[in-house]
Amino acid sequence: MRIKKILWPTDFSNSAEKALDQVVSLTEKYQAEIHVLYVIEDLAHQAQWYGAIEEGHAKKLSDFSMKTARQKLDQICGKYLNGCPLYIRHVSIGDPAREILKLIEAEKMDMVVMASRGANGQFPFGSVAEKVVRNSTVPVLTVPAASEG
Question: How many whole angstroms separate alpha carbon 95 and alpha carbon 97?
């Protein structure tokens, strides 16, 4: 198996961080690029639940979320991925599973390494991980999530 590009989706949770050891190990072994993805939840999707969000306010929230996400990705990459040959940060807005699947295709990923559940997951295997595993065109390594408590 040839691995040149690995995608690590993160929601900045302890569960997502559990996958880092695998990401770094595989990257070192294969001298692969790491693509780190954070997905911001789409505020337009929330409007139907919480009422209309003023466009200017929604843009400010989106801009703030984008800025914060980039800062957190810079911190993670600087702290954990310095020994890796190449890491590329991605931030997108939308449904996490869809955005992960889109990036797999757009960047021609060879593999995905992700936590089995995210920050808000209540079960050992979350819905985003399940959707990615079921629909991915490349192998997906799921790492057991951090235990609560």
Answer: 6
